From TrEMBL:
A Pfam family it matches: DHHC
GO CC, alphabetical: membrane
Record protein name field: Palmitoyltransferase
Substrates-to-products reaction catalysed: L-cysteinyl-[protein] + hexadecanoyl-CoA = S-hexadecanoyl-L-cysteinyl-[protein] + CoA
Enzyme Commission number, as recorded: 2.3.1.225
Palmitoyltransferase DHHC domain ranges (all copies): 95-222
Membrane topology: Multi-pass membrane protein
PROSITE patterns: DHHC
Membrane-spanning parts: 9-29, 41-60, 146-166, 186-205
């Protein structure tokens, strides 16, 4: 299912994200590798490695942006909630099905309503404008992969730029304008790396805390937990990344059915319909 929200803020953020990744790739390839490592095998190696990581980061972002984050389906028939006193943000019926009055439907435990997506999302963590989508049960893996690959890309870009500054190379062009352009672009990419690096590191720590603490950002904000039984870290990661070999968790593609401890929405909803 192809998913794209028409939120202007989100669309600006995703354009900025892709521009930032492409600019870093352009500077590292054109102004670092091709200028300073042209005649060495290391040049080819770094060219392949850097582009592969940039491609994986972009693919993970694309999957996080276009995947269904775990939208709770709307009922086929109107439901009667007259005997239920609950609203969208009411979390008192913990670990139980609740009612969303905005979607007018029952929703599984840990699902929350997103005001931007205008739907309830299973195990919603937060709405992220940088992927123009919610981070939920079905796309959190891709979001994590995106953060991880960008973190690697930032460290890699900084290391390559530093190395190009420190080593005087005999084959580098001596034209002063070329040298000045190289310095300008590499300084810009360093500033960009620093900004993105700090942002991504903070997000990555946040996400890992949420996963290992078994408490989404929404639940933290609403002070809903932790009330679930303790689970090992590997089990918690499996819930997010799927029941496959951990090495496959690194690939931004469908490598396993995302874990869900509840029945499929359509069948369970039928039992709740009035
Ligand atoms: Zn809702
Ligand atoms: Zn959302």
């Amino acid at each position: 299912m192809f998913f794209l929200l028409r939120d202007p803020c989100g669309i600006i953020c995703i354009v900025l994200t892709y521009l930032a990744v492409f600019y870093a790739d352009y500077v590292v390839v054109k102004w670092v590798i091709l200028q300073t490592m042209q005649n060495s095998l290391w040049g080819s190696f770094h060219m392949v490695m850097f582009n592969t990581i940039a491609f994986l980061a972009s693919l993970a972002h694309f999957r996080a942006m276009c995947s269904d984050p775990g939208t709770v389906p709307l009922p086929h028939n109107r439901m009667d909630f007259s005997d239920i006193h609950s609203d969208c943000n009411n979390g008192t019926e913990q670990e139980d099905w609740t009612v969303c009055t905005r979607c007018e439907t029952y929703r599984p435990p840990r699902a929350h309503h997103c005001r931007i997506c205008k739907r309830c999302i299973r195990r919603m963590d937060h709405h992220c404008p940088w992927i123009n989508n919610c981070v939920g049960e079905k796309n959190q893996k891709y979001f994590l992969q995106f953060l991880m690959y960008v973190a690697v890309l930032v460290v890699y870009a900084v290391a390559l730029v530093m190395a190009s500054w420190m080593e005087e190379c005999p084959s580098c062009p001596i034209d002063i304008t070329v040298r000045q352009s190289r310095i300008l672009h590499t300084v810009l990419v360093l500033v960009e790396s620093l900004l993105f690096g700090l942002f991504v590191a903070a997000m990555l720590v946040d996400q890992l805390q949420a996963i290992f603490g078994d408490e989404t950002a929404v639940e933290q904000a609403q002070d809903l937990g932790p009330y679930r039984p303790h689970k090992p870290r590997l089990a918690l990661l499996t819930e997010v990344c799927g029941r496959t070999h951990p090495l496959l968790w690194l690939l931004p593609c469908d490598t396993g059915v995302p874990y869900s401890s509840y029945q499929s929405d359509s069948t369970t909803l039928l039992t709740h319909e009035v």
